[in-house]
Amino acid sequence: MPNKNTILLESIEASNVALFQKKYLMNEKPVILKGMGKDWPAIRRWSADFFRNTYGHVKVPVCYYKTKQQELYKNQAKIPLREYINLAEKNNFPDSNAELPYLGGWIYHKEFPELLDDIDMTLPCFPDNWLYKLPPSISISPTNLIIGYQHVSSPLHTDSFFVNSVLTMIAGEKKARMVSPSHTFAVSNGQDLFNPETVNEVLDQGADIFEGAISAGDAFYIPPGWWHNVINCGFTIAVQNLHVDIYKFPLFEQQLRGFALPLLSKIEDLGRDAREELFKAEKTLTPPISHQIGGFIEHEKNYIRFLNKSAKKSEDYLNSYYPKHSNN
Ligand SMILES: O=C(O)CCC(=O)C(=O)O
Ligand SMILES: [Fe+2]
């Protein structure tokens, strides 16, 4: 039963593509997509036994969100999937303060691409996914697998890079509570929105809390920047897909540039320091022979052209889409 103060998430048939795109995707409004994955072979094939029998020996990364927050994927502890599933299926846990592990996002498709045959990566109610156009060297995984049980959950968070997130249920049931990015002032990372006291605090500050449940075949559409807290009602298997449409690409691109720019400016700062040293030592007159061999002048001119072009493209974009806000 939803809390009397929360708002029930809207729910539509995933086959209603036009309605989804117009009312929810374009307006960045969360919704439950009924039947999103109902025809995926995963619904018939994937189960605790399937993963235990086929991939039981594989070591999978586990999260401890309460004690370790969101660790880098490569730093997460790993345990054999067989051991994890046995634990997830256990009903009684001895009273202990130790946090239980959560398989909160296994990037399965790199090791086991055959699993992709069991799901539909095109997400039919979404337009082209621009995430797939990224060069492979930028490794943002478009999909991951989440196996949960009643005692583990994802505390309140937003997903990185302002992507569309689609969480499709393969087995079991999950519940989510969500808060709009326009009410960010009322929430904080890591909160438990299923705790009545926290709910009251958030509502008292004037924010709305949306709530919904999904079971096998259904999906949550979580728009960019939306806060979400997801709990497992029992044993669950779910697939998360990340999606970037053309409208969201500019902000996504800016987020990615945010990774490259600090590195670039570190390199440039060093270059400037070296030139200042040279200048002080009055050794600027004769460039070393290696500059000629390495085509220094030509590469530098290319670099200047690249920067000018980039600056022009960004300015044009700002001027055409945000004319009131750009200051030239
Ligand atoms: O199911 C979960 O625990 C987390 C899901 C989630 O955060 C997402 O799909 O973005
Ligand atoms: Fe998330």
Can I get a quick summary?
The protein is 33% helix and 22% strand.
Please provide a written account of the structure.
The chain has 328 residues and is α+β, with helices and mostly antiparallel strands. The chain folds into 3 domains: 7-245, Jelly Rolls (Sandwich); 248-282; 286-328, no CATH class. The chain is built from 9 helices and 14 strands. It has helices at 17-25, 41-45, 48-55, 65-68, 81-89, 196-204, 249-280, 289-293, 296-321; strands spanning 7-8, 11-13, 31-34, 59-62, 77-80, 103-106, 143-148, 153-157, 164-171, 173-179, 210-215, 219-222, 227-232, 236-243. Strand 2 (11-13), helix 1 and strand 3 (31-34) form a beta-alpha-beta unit. It is globular. Bound molecules: 2-oxoglutaric acid (AKG) and fe (ii) ion. Fe (ii) ion binds at residues 157, 159, 165, 228.
Which features would summarize this protein structure in a list?
9 helices; five-stranded mixed beta sheet; binds fe (ii) ion; Jelly Rolls; binds 2-oxoglutaric acid; seven-stranded mixed beta sheet; alpha+beta; 328 residues
pLDDT averaged over residues? 93
Global geometry:
globular
Report the sheet-strand fraction.
15-25%
Rounded to the nearest angstrom, the distance between the terminal CA atoms is 53 Å
Approximate helicity band: 25-40%
Low-confidence stretches: none
- In the sheet with the most strands, the strands line up as 2-3-12-9-14-7-6
Structural class determined from secondary elements: alpha+beta
Ions, cofactors and other ligands present here are:
2-oxoglutaric acid, fe (ii) ion
**CATH fold title of the largest domain:** Jelly Rolls
Radius of gyration, in Å, reads 24 Å
Number of helices: 9
Number of strands: 14
CATH architecture of the largest domain: Sandwich
Count the domains: 3
CATH class designation of the largest domain: Mainly Beta
CATH superfamily of the largest domain: Cupin
What is the string of SSEs from the N terminus onward? EEHEHHEHEHEEEEEHEEEEHHH
The biggest sheet, with number of strands, parallel, antiparallel or mixed sense and barrel status, is:
7 strands, mixed
